């Protein structure tokens, strides 16, 4: 009982609105706009009970998986989702490990540091995914689509988390994976997981943008399948991050969901998840999204808050001021301003998903702000004092919440979910932090 034609691709620009069949591998419409995966059928809220019951997996890896447990809400394969055999034929999974350990936790020391009651603060570590970051949520769905269209290899440009996740799922599926990097600009250690999973590294003369361009050309001309975050199927899997948070809160919306801001794939997917859940009658209240940029890579915060040319950039019902964005990028080029933060996961000057991110902020009445590197290190460290490991960029969620409470944008009795996006990738960061007694949470070694 398949639902033929339920899922399709649609351009995000409401004035354009071009549609494509679900098996299309376009990541943009012919006018160059990003695409959304769309569903014609409205999933019944009875599924809440089904999802809850699947927590007892009864031997199914697709129930164990924190992504595929919600498969009816991202059913772009259009399969009869009760049939396990059919699931196995289509759905990619690392034996159910993606998203399996992800749920919101209460962390009392982080709450005390932030100045919020422990019961109102939830932090959700995504670093305990099999490759160590939130990327596995969206990569598992992108590679599922790659398998659906019979791709022979997957292709990405990456300097870290994306290549680790892509390489891992490609290896598990027995398909090839090409990773494009700007030659001489990436520390080999950052690619250690990609090497370990057998990905082919390709060095490109130029910068990251050149590497991305070449990876997209490769995808187009050599039957590669691109898995960078402009791939709309990445966004589908990443919707399960808020799904798991909401399910844990009995589908009662928190007041805020807070993310570190880099390429804005997380912001985009959270926004899409909330738009769909609201439209489908699954939630009554729309949580507000807060995006926390680094001071040194603050494109969204600058534009959204009117710090460039005094104009606050908005989605504006699908008519954002594209010229303003272009002028901002020209300004960065002209002044030689490069994104600069030790939190490399969010060291991004041109967020690929900025338009979907703006749409998410408009729908949720969201906010954007920035924090410093030293603040992020404090955030990372206080999470550690609760027994959880996270990378520096994830610390942005913690100190971002603290900053927004200080500014009375987040109220003290608001319920807040902060996403901790990845696990520690740089072993020396905590060592250096704790060796310096001036740091807030430092516990220096003794002789
Ligand atoms: Zn379009």
UniProtKB/TrEMBL annotation:
The gene is thrC. The modification N6-(pyridoxal phosphate)lysine is found at residue 135. It is an enzyme of class 4 (lyase). Residues 119-422 form the Tryptophan synthase beta chain-like PALP domain. InterPro entries: Ser/Thr_Dehydratase, Thr_synthase-like, TrpB-like_PALP, TrpB-like_PALP_sf. Belongs to the threonine synthase family. Its cofactor is pyridoxal 5'-phosphate. One of its GO terms (biological process) is threonine biosynthetic process. NCBIfam families: thrC. PANTHER family: L-THREONINE DEHYDRATASE CATABOLIC TDCB (PTHR48078:SF6), THREONINE DEHYDRATASE, MITOCHONDRIAL-RELATED (PTHR48078). This is Threonine synthase. GO terms for molecular function: L-serine ammonia-lyase activity; threonine deaminase activity; threonine synthase activity. Keywords: Lyase, Pyridoxal phosphate.
């Amino acid at each position: 009982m398949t639902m033929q034609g339920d899922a399709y691709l649609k351009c995000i620009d409401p004035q354009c609105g071009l549609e494509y069949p679900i098996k299309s591998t376009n990541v943009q419409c012919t006018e160059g706009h990003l695409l959304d995966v769309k569903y014609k059928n409205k999933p019944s809220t009875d599924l809440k009970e089904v999802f809850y019951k699947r927590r007892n997996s009864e031997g199914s890896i697709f129930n164990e998986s924190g992504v595929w447990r919600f498969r009816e809400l991202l059913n772009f394969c259009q399969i009869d989702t009760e049939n396990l055999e059919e699931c196995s034929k289509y759905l990619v999974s690392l034996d159910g490990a993606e998203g399996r350990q992800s749920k919101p936790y209460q962390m009392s020391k982080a709450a005390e540091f932030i100045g919020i009651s422990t019961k109102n603060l939830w932090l959700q570590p995504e670093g305990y995914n099999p490759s160590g970051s939130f990327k596995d949520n969206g990569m598992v769905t992108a590679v599922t689509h790659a398998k659906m269209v019979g791709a022979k290899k997957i292709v990405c440009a990456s300097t870290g988390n994306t290549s680790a996740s892509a390489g891992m799922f490609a290896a598990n599926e027995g398909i090839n994976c090409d990773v494009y990097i700007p030659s001489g600009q990436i520390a080999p250690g950052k690619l250690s997981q990609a090497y370990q999973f057998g990905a082919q590294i390709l060095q490109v003369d130029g910068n990251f943008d050149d590497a991305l361009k070449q990876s997209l050309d490769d995808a187009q001309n050599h039957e590669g399948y691109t898995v960078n975050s402009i791939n709309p199927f990445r966004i589908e899997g990443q919707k399960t991050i808020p799904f798991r948070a909401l399910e844990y809160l009995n589908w009662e919306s928190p007041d805020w969901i807070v993310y570190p801001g880099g390429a804005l794939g997380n912001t985009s997917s959270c926004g899409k998840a909330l738009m769909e859940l609201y439209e489908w009658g699954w939630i009554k209240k729309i949580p507000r999204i807060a995006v926390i940029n680094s001071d040194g890579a603050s494109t969204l915060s600058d534009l959204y808050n009117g710090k460039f040319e005094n104009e606050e950039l908005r989605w504006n019902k699908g008519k954002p001021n594209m010229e303003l964005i272009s002028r901002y990028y020209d300004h960065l080029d002209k002044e030689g301003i490069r994104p600069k933060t030790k939190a490399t996961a969010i060291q991004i000057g041109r967020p690929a998903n900025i338009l979907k991110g703006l749409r998410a902020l408009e729908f949720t009445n969201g906010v954007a702000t920035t924090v410093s590197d030293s603040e992020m290190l404090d955030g990372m460290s206080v999470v550690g004092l609760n027994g959880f490991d996270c990378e520096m960029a994830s610390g942005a969620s913690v100190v971002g919440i603290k900053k927004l409470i200080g500014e009375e944008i987040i109220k003290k009795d608001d319920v807040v979910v902060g996403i901790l996006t990845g696990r520690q990738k740089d072993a020396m960061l905590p060592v250096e932090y704790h060796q310096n007694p001036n740091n807030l949470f430092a516990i220096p070694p003794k002789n």
